[in-house]
Amino acid sequence: DLSRVSWMRANIEGQFDLISGDDPSYLGYHAQGGVGVISVTSNVAPEAMVALHEAAAAGDYATARDWQDRLIGLHKGLFLDNSPSPTKYALSRLQLCGEEVRLPLAPTADAVKPAIDRAMAAAGLG
User: Can you list the domains of the chain with their CATH numbers?
Assistant: First the structure.
């Protein structure tokens, strides 16, 4: 609920830094006074997330929107199955680790892997 950012800024500004916990809403959160994000996408696309953040922090929202548009499929794709399995799958596609996970986690379902692959390609990865 992005309206919560405005309420928090109006009522507690200066007492806390406002940090988004959700990649898809980060840009809107930042535009309303947020200063960062606890990001899942940054594990898979760190340079792109840094570019998005730097553009937003500089007030260059046109560039930040371009990055957000490139990354939105990945933001969503990394939650198509139980987290963190899709992130591990994406990292394995980048040859940064293996795909296997330990119990109680389950591997990413084969049915969602093509969507993650497409999201990675749209983000310029792999």
Answer: 3-122 (3.20.20.70)
